[in-house]
């Protein structure tokens, strides 16, 4: 169940923005303030990992998912990152 909720939260964030880090306030509100699944320090570390890897700026959502729910969360973040692009195609 946590997988589906995490996927839905991250998908909402990626659907509602057009650039990588503009999803950050939405993700922070949902996962840090509202649900308490991660801390601000975890979110900062996820953004650092996302910014230091090659690829799109929004790839940090995969790292956020991993911090929340391990490898299943990383898969949820990866799917959430791909969903808007696949929906357009």
Describe the overall structure.
By secondary structure, this protein is mostly helical. It contains four helices and no strands. Helix 1 crosses helix 4. The protein is globular, with a radius of gyration of 12 Å. The protein starts with a helix and ends with a helix. 35% of the residues are buried. The mean pLDDT is 89.
Task: Name a few traits of the molecule.
single chain, 89 residues, mainly alpha, 4 helices, globular
Largest sheet: none
Query: What's the assembly state of these chains?
Result: single chain
Helix count equals: 4
Category from helices, strands and their pairing: mainly alpha
Kindly state the percentage of residues in helix.
Answer: over 70%
Distance between the termini: 28 Å
Shape: globular
**Any low-confidence stretches, pLDDT <50, length ≥5?**
none
- β-strand amount: under 5%
Task: Give a concise summary.
Helix 1 packs antiparallel against helix 2. The protein is 75% helix and 0% strand.
Show the helix and strand layout.
Layout: H1 2-15, H2 24-34, H3 40-52, H4 60-88
Helix pairs in contact: 1-2, 1-4, 3-4
